[in-house]
Amino acid sequence: MSALLDVKDLVVRFYTQEGTVYAVNGVSFEIEEGETLGIVGESGSGKSVSSLALMGLIPSPPGKVESGTVIFEGRDLLTLKPDQMRLIRGKEIAMIFQDPMTSLNPVLTIGTQITESLKLHEGMNTSQSRKRAADLLDMVGIPDAYRRLDDYPHQFSGGMRQRVMIAMGLSCNPKLLIADEPTTALDVTIQAQIIELVKQLKDEFNMAMIWITHDLGVVAGIADRIQVMYGGRIMESGSSHEVFGDSRHPYTVGLLGSLPRLDSSGEEKLTQIEGSPPDMRNEPKGCPFAPRCDVRETLQLERCWDERPLLETVPGNGGDGAHIMSCWADIREGVAENV
Amino acid sequence: MSSQTMTAEARQEQNGRDVILQVSDLKKHFPISAGIVFQRQVGAVRAVDGVSFDVYRGETLGLVGESGCGKSTTGRTILQLYRPTEGSVKFEGQELSTMAGNDLRQMRRRMQIIFQDPFASLNPRMTVGSIVSEPLQIHKIYNDKKERQQYVEQLMERVGLNPYFINRYPHEFSGGQRQRIGIARALALEPSFIVADEPISALDVSIQAQVVNLMEELQDELNLTYLFIAHDLSMVRHICDRVAVMYLGKIVELGPVDEVYNNPQHPYTQALLSAVPVPDPVVEEDRQRIIIAGDLPNPANPPAGCNFNTRCPVAFDLCYHEPDPPLIEVRPQHFVSCHRVT
User: Fold this and answer.
1) In Å, how far from its chain's centre is CA B337?
2) If contacts are CB pairs under 8 Å, which of residues 189-208 in chain B contact chain A?
3) Across-strand partners of B242?
4) Diameter over CA atoms, chain B
5) Is there a contact between A219 and A46 (Cβ–Cβ < 8 Å)?
6) Which of A124, A214, A242, B190 would bridge A129 by S-S if both were Cys, CB 3.0 to 4.6 A apart?
7) What is the pLDDT of residues A150-208, one digit of tens each?
8) What interface predicted TM-score (ipTM) does this complex get?
9) What is the pTM of this model?
10) Cα separation of B241 and B222, whole Å?
11) Whole-angstrom Cα distance, residue A263 to residue A294?
């Protein structure tokens, strides 16, 4: 079976006055139908930019997709004309954003905003689309849905606004939903409500999903596969069990070690990753994580600075080869030498 | 009414520990006014609505809750950055709520605050050196310029900043480094008590651990007491000795962290803990979540009866009529305010 979405070698740069920002530097991944992919990374890792690029939403200038292909159902989205892309965006691929206050238009009613895509993509008239919009709001758990169509975004709470965003994203039964930090602005109890809702709707609509987040906890519960990004590259990718249970990239290991866990009393000190995230204005050479990598330091690996490691199946993997990472060191050797 | 009305002496005796801060029935109501010409008060947002707790010397007390529950307002009211509407705050035995002017300024030498947003809390027009030394100038410590600079450099080194950067401006630093500047500023006057108001929530994951480790080191070295305000419950478990859970301006549960996390008694605490995701797919698969419906009620118009009754999965008659019950000690040092728990 061919993948629903196949991204190959995506490169995105921003040409700003302060210099070129190397935001995404060769990212490739696939998503199968009905699958949930979690993309994890810190700010500046390129996780949001790569998803905006495949939706054709990179502001240009200053941004530019330098190279790469994004094959969705046999077509390369990057070569489509704006008109053709508009037919896919919102219909085949929908997106929900982090901050539901800024991504909803404050001067239009919720009803107007949801029915817009129904009219455009499904050719519905006003009364049909309003009825469908009310059904959608009802489905995402907004009480008294029909009456609330005429309310404005500020009349909803943060969690309710995110529900509206989800209703909007799902309005045309998309095959792929991209969720960019959809729960980051919400409180934990509301986050739990939204995650539960999305999980249930994903099964109902049988859609694939990309869940972008910095919160490793959130993706652990929701994603089938996890992709860890750093400095505009993929560091490690595999099933969530592999990435969490058998982490092989020093960055993934460091990230997990630096997180306190709710289910352990945490007497011991957190292992910290030294230094700070890379300045993306420097032309990437070698591994982006090299300056902060304790494995490189222990093993005194020189090639990490100059040669870029390829994404390859992790050594000694008995699985189907889906667990990949890009690192010159085999962390198992590194750990062994440390001991 | 056991713990809330207990006298200070009795509380101290009970634990035999050195109490650095005593908060009793603290309230902070922000007025809501109406009218264009004749402004009149039409109501009040009850941000903090009767909060009592002690902080022991050398410990870290966590204050957790969702946005709008009044945890930051509590922190600021303790430091008298907001003046309390009612109640008392005793710091090292002295009543702060009636103190003003120079007396209060002198107290501020011993209690400091670290803010959440390291981008907004540093003056962009001041160099790191002048930001960190401003408290010293105000309190006229290290009047000799050279000595003062030496001291500031020492402080910078202590929080992991290169003293070489003393003349740089905040925008030249990353978020984590800025938070270190904020910590250095808070430490400048050698306080004994620091309110840390969400000090890590604006930082990247890999930077959070750096700052938390630094705070822990400083605590051991300088015998600091922290009031750690946060919404990240995993981090609170890691760094805190005791935790107080707030909901709509009130403390609903208070106790040692392991006790509260392993054995939460209040339905809100239970829901809150079950909602926190754990970075482990194996654990996540088997977890049962308690999803509480709805949003936080408006703190200007709290529900009758117990504050939590609009979202509580186990509410019964009493919860809708009787105001929220006092904190009851269910186990040693573990207090809960719930009609279900008696």
Assistant:
1) 19
2) 204-208
3) B61, B256
4) 69
5) no
6) A124
7) 999 988 888 888 889 888 888 888 999 999 988 887 888 888 888 888 888 888 888 99
8) 0.82
9) 0.87
10) 17
11) 27
